[in-house]
Amino acid sequence: MAFSHLGLSDKVLAAIKAAGYKTPTPIQDQAIPHVLARRDVLGIAQTGTGKTAAFVLPMLTMLEQGRARARMPRTLILEPTRELAAQVADHFEKYGKNHKLNVALIIGGVSYDDQDAKLLRGVDVLIATPGKRNGLLCSFMCVAAWRRLARVGLRPACLSASTIENATVIPYQL
Length: 174
Prior knowledge:
By secondary structure, the protein is mainly alpha-helical. The chain has two domains: about 1-65, no CATH class; about 65-165, P-loop containing nucleotide triphosphate hydrolases (Rossmann fold, 3-Layer(aba) Sandwich). About 45% of the residues lie in helices and about 10% in strands. The chain has helices spanning about 10-20, 25-35, 50-65, 80-95, 110-120, 130-140, 145-150, and strands spanning about 75-80, 105, 125-130, 165, 165-170. The chain has a three-stranded parallel sheet with strand order 1-3-2, sandwiched between helices. A two-stranded antiparallel ribbon has the order 4-5. β4 and β5 form a beta hairpin. α2 (about 25-35) packs parallel to α3 and α3 crosses α4. The chain starts with 9 loop residues before the first helix and ends in a 6-residue tail after the last strand. The relative contact order is 0.11.
């Protein structure tokens, strides 16, 4: 079987061909049609079998069909480690080379300033580790947003901080 039977876009198929791949791995063959149908997929396969490409390739195809809104991410991918997040970002760069997508990798150990600048320019795909995502979320929230969240009973993980950047944080109270 070839990648062409999976329903991927011409741009994605061209990137796959340029990368030198001819046939999908079993996990890709089974997962890609379900992802394109917007179904939940749980895939288990050994390291090196193409699991990352199994979700990146159909996501690229789906992102072609939508429009970007002003500086709002259209896709959020959370990975448990910096290494996995970087791998996903590499796949978006490799297979998304025919797309005009802005991809931001938000991980620890990298300057907040560089990552903030990417987010302020606007991104289509936001790839992050949960801790760094929470930290950035907290740094962008204003006091009014804190109050609204507290009113509806939501408590962000960073609410216990006394100050975030230049804003004074309202302590959470029941």
